[in-house]
Design goal:
heterodimer, A: mainly alpha, two-stranded antiparallel sheet, 3% strand, B: mainly alpha, 14 helices, disordered C terminus
Chain lengths: 333, 462
């Protein structure tokens, strides 16, 4: 049991983070795309598609952070100081992004909060990518504590990951808009989807090549036998998904491109897990090294098994409740 | 720069958490008020309550957004600023915060969506129920976070091994000795805070001669609530104090600026505690009053600050003055709420303009009292972050001063902008006042219940 518990928790936190990336991904994506809207009523229409959900979507980020604190306090205590600046800039960006939803609704002039919404969303996405990239590159640890400097994360690779995540979230955003809106916003989203899909594929390829080239442990994971026999389908399925996404976008389909984008994210996430498992703080600490006391993990696991299905139930309910397309000119509250 | 990183980390955390607590103090109570208005609307079919609910929902939306975004910051700051804290007490405190996320945050966030955007999509009962669920969610959130905080004040149910706290008895951890008192005190404080905001807004409308009907309803509801809760808060606070005396006597000694434990304690209405010499200057005191309150005997003794070395004392001035601010506001609240109830009973509440004019400026009372109370309990715990387990100075992260100072400046700047605009927009929403019946179709007809059900069903199918 003591051997399995950290694995179960790693899977749960992985799920929470992935849920966050998918769900807040299209929210942030809409923020990234905000400047491409032509009129204020188009921007209203765009935010209207996510207004009932964004708060719940962002809660997955809290669950990811709190989950790490609960289940792997040692990892939490190393990762947070290591990424101090990007974490705090991300949080402040999310502050501006979050209040912009309500503020631009009650403000007479929306321009300032439109900018806050766009910059906040973009910067938060970039920081998340930077944190991810920095984590892949590894964190300096001595005596169970972070031992590096405040800017260790600032590398070209981390910046590439930051830009990649912006492209990825933007793709989630446009495919969401293509599905949830009508009129000019939906039409423009379909045009943008193609460009963004290409950008995302270039980014995925660059990150996938750069990672094994710079990290020998990751190269060993993928390119040694017998691992290679099991792992070669991952890039193949990714390529196939990308091809299908392209076709569906070209054919003007509404739902499938969004699903395909989510699948691309899932595959990218799978690639990360394969590259780094069982390290939670690469390259030194594994899920077992950083696990909380088994009594704490069990206590929280019981609550999670009870509450998570209920949460998923009412989250599904609210997505169902606000189903259908949002038209231009519909009221906010 | 050679600022003390511990001091900077504390400043940053104090700033972000004080900013945050302003919004829960308001939204915990306001969501309950929304649910109450909705329930009365459903029962009576009186549209005034519906308009009031819509009006306060607009204000709730702005406040809640600020509370959510500033709360997320805190869940990460345990790691960014207090990484040793996370390691040493993470096994115990972590799951309490985890339960808060799972049992409260998702609930609030999701049903807030229904409350803000679902009016035309759900039947009225579900719309009102969503407000109630949000209210319950905020209270459940308070339950868990106060349990975690109380454990840091009065830790029980754990064992130390290898310098790290391990859980031994979860019931003893969750329901640690100070938790019931702190939870009751804070929840009541949140309802009182909202009560005084509603009271102030109602008074403002009547003084201005606008929205008279809504203003009167707000005033009656707020006075009815605060006239009960404000005196109750005195009783809860007293009990909380007795509990603190039992478990954290030095915090009480600091609250009373009581140095010499061999003599009965006076209650100092004012004093300037001198922490170097260990005496009070400029004392204005009620003799033995502190002993009477705390021990229920005129000559009862309780520990003084001198009983522990200076390194184990909290910052006396901070605790002492913050406690006085809280007390003063508390007594003013009791007096003004009871006087309002008296005027209501006499039938002159809406005509006593000087009272209404004063009350219309009192919206901030609860917020300041809540912040002062938290300063008392958090500063009073110093030098410990988890009483007896971990000192604050040993709880920090390996992050250089300059980095913390830089982000502190960012926080001040960002929160300053957000707060200024937030207050400005809320004030403008209040100035606009409750709207008259809107032009859009309202899927609810008050009298025949079947018609309401039909409208609701139609709304569900849409």
């Amino acid at each position: 049991m003591e051997w399995y518990l950290p694995l179960i928790w790693a899977a749960l936190i992985g799920t929470a983070v992935f849920m966050y990336v998918l769900l807040d991904g299209f929210d942030l994506g809409i923020g990234i795309l905000f400047p491409t809207a032509r009129t204020e009523s188009e921007r209203d229409q765009m935010t209207r598609t996510i207004a009932p959900y964004w708060d719940g979507n962002e809660t997955w980020l809290v669950l990811g952070g709190a989950g790490l604190f609960v289940a792997f306090p040692k990892a939490y205590s190393i990762i947070m100081p290591a990424f101090y600046l990007p974490v705090i800039v991300m949080l402040l960006s999310l502050v501006f992004r979050g209040v912009a939803f309500e503020f631009r609704h009650v403000s007479y002039s929306k321009t300032g909060w439109n900018i806050a919404f766009n910059v906040g969303s973009t910067l938060a996405s970039f920081c998340q990518g930077v944190i991810l990239g920095g984590l892949i590159q590894g964190v300096a640890v001595r005596d169970g504590a972070f031992s590096g400097g405040s800017f260790d994360w600032a590398t070209p690779f981390a910046f590439l990951c930051g830009l990649s995540l912006i492209a990825g979230y933007a793709l989630l955003g446009v495919t969401w808009l293509a599905m949830k809106t009508e009129g000019p916003v939906a039409q423009r989203a379909r045009g943008q989807a193609k460009v963004l899909l290409l950008a995302v594929l270039v980014c995925m390829a660059a990150v996938s090549l750069w990672t094994p080239l710079s990290q020998s442990r990751i190269a060993d994971r993928w390119f040694t036998l017998p691992n290679f026999y099991f792992l070669w389908p991952v890039p193949l399925v990714t390529a196939l998904t990308a091809y299908l996404a392209w076709r569906w976008i070209e054919n003007g389909r509404e739902v499938p491109p969004f699903l395909a984008t989510m699948a691309l994210f899932l595959l990218g996430f799978l690639g990360l897990v394969i590259s780094n498992f069982p390290y939670l703080v690469p390259p030194s600490l594994t899920v077992w090294d950083t696990a909380a006391a088994p009594a704490s993990q069990i206590f929280m696991l019981l609550g999670t098994l009870l509450l998570l299905p209920i949460i998923l139930g009412y989250v599904a309910f609210i997505y169902w409740l606000f189903r259908g397309k949002v038209r231009e000119g519909e009221s906010y509250h | 720069m050679d600022f003390d990183p511990v001091l900077l980390a504390r400043l940053q955390f104090a700033f972000t958490i004080v900013f945050h607590i302003i919004f829960p103090s308001f939204t915990i109570g306001l969501s309950a008020y929304l649910a109450t208005l909705g329930a009365i609307w459903l029962r009576t079919g009186n549209d005034r309550y519906h308009h009031l609910m819509q009006f306060w929902t607009r204000i709730f939306a702005v406040s809640f957004a600020m509370g959510v975004v500033s709360g997320i910051v805190l869940s990460y700051q345990f790691g960014t600023n207090w990484s040793r804290f996370s390691v040493v007490v993470g096994n115990v405190v972590g799951p309490l915060i985890g339960y808060e996320v799972l049992s409260a945050f998702f609930l609030e966030a999701t049903f807030l969506g229904v409350l803000l955007f679902g009016f035309n999509r759900v039947p009225p009962w579900l719309y009102v129920l969503s407000a109630a669920i949000v209210a319950v969610g905020t209270a459940v959130s308070a339950f868990w976070i106060l349990s975690a905080n109380s454990w840091m004040q009065t830790p029980t149910g754990h064992q130390m091994s290898g310098g790290v706290a391990h859980p031994a008895d979860w019931l003893a951890i969750v329901f640690n000795p100070s938790f019931p008192y702190r939870f009751a005190h804070m929840l009541n404080a949140a309802y009182l805070t909202t009560g005084f905001v509603v009271l102030a807004v109602g008074a403002r409308y009547i003084v201005a001669g606008r929205h008279l009907e809504e203003g009167r309803t707000m005033l009656r509801m707020a006075i009815g609530l605060t006239a009960i809760l404000a005196p109750l808060q005195l009783f809860i606070g007293d009990q909380h104090g007795l509990n603190t005396l039992q478990h954290q006597p030095i915090k009480i000694a600091a609250m009373e600026a009581h140095w010499d434990g061999s003599k009965p304690g006076d209650f100092h209405i004012f004093a300037w505690p001198d922490e170097v010499t260990g005496v009070n200057r400029f004392e204005l005191s009620i003799p033995k009053a502190a002993s009477l309150v705390l021990t229920h005997r005129m000559n009862g003794l309780f520990p003084g600050l001198n009983s522990v070395p200076a390194s184990d004392r909290p910052p006396v001035k901070t605790v002492f003055f913050a406690f006085r601010i809280m007390l003063a506001i508390g007594f003013f609240m009791i007096a003004s709420a009871l006087f309002g109830a008296f005027l209501w009973w006499r039938g002159t509440l809406f005509e006593t303009r000087w009272y209404l004019r004063v009350m219309s400026h009192c919206w901030w009372l609860g917020f300041v009292a809540v912040i002062a109370g938290w300063v008392v309990t958090e500063s009073g715990r110093q030098p410990w972050v988890a009483q007896g387990i971990l000192r604050t100075a040993d709880a920090t992260s390996p992050v250089p001063s300059a980095t913390i100072a830089g982000t502190l400046a960012l926080f001040v700047l960002a929160y300053g902008v957000v707060f200024w605009f937030g207050i400005y927009y809320i004030n403008r929403l209040i100035a606009q006042g409750p709207h008259k019946p809107s032009a859009e179709p309202v899927p609810f007809s008050p009298s025949p219940i079947s018609a309401a059900q039909d409208a609701g069903r139609e709304a569900m199918q849409r």
